[in-house]
Design goal:
This protein is of the alpha+beta class and 122 residues long. It contains 2 helices and 7 strands. The relative contact order is 0.20.
Amino acid sequence: MKIGDKILIGVLLIISLVSAYFTYDKALLRTGTNVVIEVNGSKYQELPLDVDKTVTVHNGKHINVVEIKDGKVRMKESDCPDQICVNTGWIEKEGQQIVCLPNRVVVRVTGGKKGEVDDIVY
């Protein structure tokens, strides 16, 4: 392999990485507009992400508190033993979710603005 081949491979690799970054940024990291709360696989509530609100989810003897604030959502409190859902923190991008497996509660961000890219194929 000659030095010119190595330079060409390097330039093509850099162009591929830069284009992949911008494609990922534009297409996949869209800010969501709604929050869907599911309990036991069924929709419990759907709320707008731009209205501050705190929702207490009762599932049998389990309790989760979901907080929506400043266009973001988090699991504020949970009585589950591991607290992974609480430690997930704030989410705001379409497709992100917080899952509390012991209490069977899922908080999902949906409805982001449509980007310029319709689909991505790898």
